[in-house]
Structures are given as C-alpha cells and as structure tokens.
Write a structure and sequence with these properties.
Length: 549
C-alpha cells in the first residue's frame, strides 16, 4: 500500500515528534495507537511496504501461525474483537495479514508510518535529551522517546554454507518470499531447514513439486496441529466471553488460553500417563505442553514424552530408514520450538519426496546446479532456505544504536543481551524495546507480551510527565539483578540443552546462552507490576527547569 499522504516525505531533513516507533508489526502498531491516544505526536518507521511485521514478509507456501487465533490477536480494543471474525483455529498467513490490515484501517494507523523506510542509526543527544533517528531516505526524526518495536524475528539468516551465490536456479528465502506466485509443478525443489517454517513448506510442497528434496540437518519434533474451521456458534460464544479469556491469558504462563497443568509427570501411573499422552496427540496443538507441569525441568519425564513421539513417527512413516532419520535425538523435546504440522510425517510416504539425512552426509557446498553433500550432488531447479532468523537481538543490532556517553548497543551486548525487564537498557535513556530479548519473548504469546510491555512503558512515561521528569533508564544494579534472575531460571530449564536460535546457536559467532525469561508470562507480569510500584529499578532526571529551581 502506498505511503499515507500525511506521513513524512523522505526528502524532509529533520522533523520533531514526541515518540519514534520503529516497526509496524503487532507491537509497533499497538505502540503507535497507545501513544497517539495519549495525545502524543508519533512517527512510525517500517521497512516493509505495509503493516504486519513478520506476516508481511512471510508469504511462503503453508505459512500459518502455531498459536490459536483467539490467542494471537489484540485484546485492547473491544471494537476490533467484535468486528473481526477468524475463520480457522490456527490462522494462515493471508488471514493474519488481512487482520493486521483491518486493525490498521479500523484504528487509522497508517498515516503515522513511513513505509519502505529503514532506520540507519538512532543516537541519543544528551545535551538536548532527545533521540535522533536517521533513515535511509535522508530524514532525521527527533523525539524524547524511542520505541524499538523491531520484534524478536525480523532479520533473516542464510545458512552458513559455501557457494550460495553460485546457484543458477531459482533461490528463494522463506522469510523474504516473493509476492508473486511461484510455480513448483514438475520442478526439482530442495529445502534446507526443518524448523517450523521448513515443516510447513515441506508438507505443502510435497503435493505440488515434481520432486522434493528435504536436506535435514537437525530433525525437529513436530506434533499434529489438528486445525479446523471455526463454527459460527462457537465464534459467537468466543466473542461474548472475550473479557474473561483475555484476563485468563494475562494470568497464564503462556500468555494464551492453553491449559497449564500443575500435575507432575510421575504423579500418574504408567497407564494413565500413556492415556494422557494419547489424548494430547489426538487433541493436537500444544496440548502436550499443558499436560504435565515438569516436562521442561524433569529430564526423565521429558525422555518418556520424547519416546512417545518418536514411536508415533515410526508408525506413520512407512520406510524404516526414513522414519529413523526423522526421529530427533540428543536434545530434550520442546527445548527447540515445539512445531505443529498437518501430515508432515505422512508427506515422506509420497514417492516424490526424498529425505536427505545431513547428519550422515553433511552438506559440503551449494553448487551451480544444486546441493552437494558428502554423499554426492543433488541437482535442483529451485532451492529454498528455511533457515530462520538472527533472532531476539538481530533487529536491534542491525543498525547503530548509541546511548549515553557514546555507548553503542553493539558494544553493550557484545557478550550477549542484557536489560531490565527485557525492554530497558542501562545507559540508553528513554529507549524501550517491547518484546525484548530478556523477557518471555518467543516463549509466550508475542501479542500478549507486546500489549503488556507497551502499556507498562506508557505508564512509566505518564509517571515521568506527571512528575516533571525528562529521562529515565534502568540502573546498572537493577539490570544486573534482572539478568541474574533470568540466568537462575534458565539454569533449571531443559531449553538450554538444545542448540537453537533460542540460545543463539544458529548464528556463527553469536554469544551463546538462554537469555529469555523462562519463568512464564504470568510471573513476568507480576514482576513488572512490582517494578512499576515506585520504579525503584529506574533512574530519573528532572526537567532542567525544575532542576534549576
């Protein structure tokens, strides 16, 4: 969609506003709305041509959210909730993008954004107590507050494989999929990457491609999604009970409506444990994670659930060698992102679908004609990278962010991200990053997190303005205490035992470690509420006129 008439022109050199918002995903859209409703002049900046964030870019075949539609939607606007109707339990990308566009239209948000625009630097001017954000169009925005709503998944990452530039066929990246249709019929198609994105692509293209070659470097556990259309009577019930459901989501560790059990795995006898797992498999979705309380802290319990899923794989996939290669081993189930599928394993029973086990024969290079492993070369017409993102910190480190006394965020985070509450960083006044890398981030419902974080930030700004305060930032002491808590919780979690983008292992040279808050969204919310009671973890500077008086 074209840039709004009253959005800033790229030729403008400098413009002063109250709040800069970087990103037009769900966090950025809500931030623009929230601060506008506070009476602020807001300037949004978005690299894409329209709203939607990751769902604007992710248009690959089979793209679908693995959170239920009722969870993955805004709760702040009763009008939006009542006027929008979801068609499926787990919405596909076109419907999610349509929802984002509906919200932008309904709340008149586009006029505040400059689209097709990237921030090249954001620098704190301590003398004037403002942020100066420079864009690739030559414009500089100035504002006392800067909201980095860049999200945890917005910087795509190519695989670390030699020869990518040599491939003469069609090279496609899942996270930057072309907007025009791609014809796979009769083509030899290769897919590198078998996380949630790769799984969705494979189960879709298995029915379309002439031949499909899946280069599997790390097998993923994936569970049946059991998606279905939403019946009108159920939708009506859901809309009547939205307030209660939203409150339940805010008090749920997942930030969603998924049930959470307090029942330890070994509190049930073996027959009942098996019955519970069978029921979770049949119900689909993330039911498993809500069946037992200790799956991510008790290795023996985790092992038994993993054995159950591996047994299911062996029963679904007809070729024993393929089935064995698809069975994940060497890391706890759910320590990598828990994937949901629609007949992913069944896809390998198709004669045109071939699994290339890269644990047995690793990929050596991309060639002009395809992919060469230690077992030989596979010629391809189309090669797809489904290799994920430089997650959590990638978007915030993609351009220069410079705080007080010339401190760059890249320098501050050279050993890994540190912050207070996940969204404030010591040394960076009036800078806020909702859904930041040290909060629940990718471990809970991102829209619930985004709404919570933006509301907290708005409350802090209201407090500042009511008390004549110009700047705030996290204290070094509060930041250190928060990171100590994050580390202490991570030490008890089995998540740290897998090599995933959750711990940074998918990016060469990136600091390793589980830096997300694994204590659950409800506990995170409680800690943030306590932090807002007096703001003891923040340092404040009064407006200069007040200080002089």
């Amino acid at each position: 969609m074209a840039q709004a008439d009253n959005a800033p022109d790229k030729g403008t050199r400098t413009r002063r506003v109250d709040v800069i918002v970087v990103g037009a995903g769900f966090a950025g859209m809500y931030a623009v709305y929230r601060f506008r409703e506070m009476g602020k002049q807001v300037a949004g900046i978005e690299a894409g041509s329209d709203v939607g964030g990751v769902w604007y870019w992710n248009r690959y075949p089979g793209a679908r959210c693995d959170l239920m539609s009722v969870d993955y939607s805004y709760g702040f606007s009763e009008e939006v909730q009542q006027e929008w109707t979801w068609s499926e339990q787990f919405a596909a990308q076109p419907e999610i993008l349509a929802y984002a566009n509906f919200v932008a239209d309904r709340l008149d948000l586009r006029k505040h954004f400059a689209f097709d625009t990237r921030v090249t630097s954001a620098v704190w001017d301590d003398a004037r107590r403002i942020w100066r954000a420079t864009t690739d169009g030559g414009e500089t925005l100035e504002a006392p507050y800067c909201i980095m709503a860049t999200g945890p998944l917005s910087v795509p990452k190519d695989p670390d494989i030699p020869g990518i530039g040599r491939f003469r066929g069609q090279l496609l990246r899942a996270q930057r999929w072309p907007h025009e249709p791609v014809d796979f019929s009769g083509k030899r198609v290769g897919v590198i990457g078998t996380g949630s994105t790769g799984i969705q692509i494979v189960q879709t293209l298995g029915k379309e491609a002439g031949e499909l070659f899946v280069f599997q470097r790390t097998p993923s556990y994936t569970l049946p999604m059991r998606n279905h259309d939403l019946e009108p009577d159920y939708v009506a019930e859901m809309k009547r009970h939205y307030p209660a459901m939203r409150e339940a989501m805010r008090n749920n560790p997942t930030g969603g409506t998924r049930p959470v059990s307090t029942r330890p795995f070994f509190s049930l006898p073996p027959s009942q444990r098996l019955q519970a797992m069978e029921q979770a498999w049949e119900n689909g979705g993330h039911t498993f994670l809500g069946s037992f309380a200790d799956l991510m802290t008790n290795q023996e319990a985790n092992d038994q659930v993993a054995d159950f899923v591996r047994d299911k794989i062996g029963k679904i996939v007809k070729d024993p060698e393929t089935a064995e290669a698809l069975k994940p081993r060497g890391y706890p189930i759910f320590a990598r992102r828990a994937c949901l599928d629609t007949e992913y394993y069944e896809t390998y029973n198709r004669p045109n679908v071939h699994l290339v086990d890269c644990l047995k024969a690793p990929i050596v290079e991309i060639t002009e004609r395809g992919v060469r492993t230690e077992a030989g070369e596979t010629e391809l017409d189309i090669l797809i990278f489904a290799t994920g993102y430089d997650a959590l910190t990638g978007a915030l480190l993609a351009f220069d962010v410079v705080g007080r006394d010339g401190l760059s965020l890249k320098e501050k985070w050279k050993s890994g991200p540190v912050s207070y509450l996940g969204f404030m960083v010591a040394g960076f006044p009036n800078l806020f990053a909702p859904s930041g890398p040290n909060g629940p981030a990718a471990l809970a419902n991102l829209i619930t997190i985004a709404e919570h974080d933006v509301d907290w930030i708005a409350g802090a700004i209201e407090y500042m303005e009511e008390n004549g305060i110009e700047t705030t930032e996290a204290t070094e002491k509060a930041e250190a205490a928060w990171m100590e808590l994050v580390a202490r919780l991570a030490e008890r979690s089995l998540i740290r035992k897998a090599k995933t983008w959750w711990v940074g292992s998918n990016v060469k040279g990136k600091p390793q470690g589980l830096t997300m808050f694994v204590g659950g969204f409800n506990k995170y919310r409680d800690l943030c509420a306590a932090a807002a009671d007096g703001y003891a973890g923040l340092s404040f500077e009064k407006a200069r006129e007040s200080a002089a008086a």
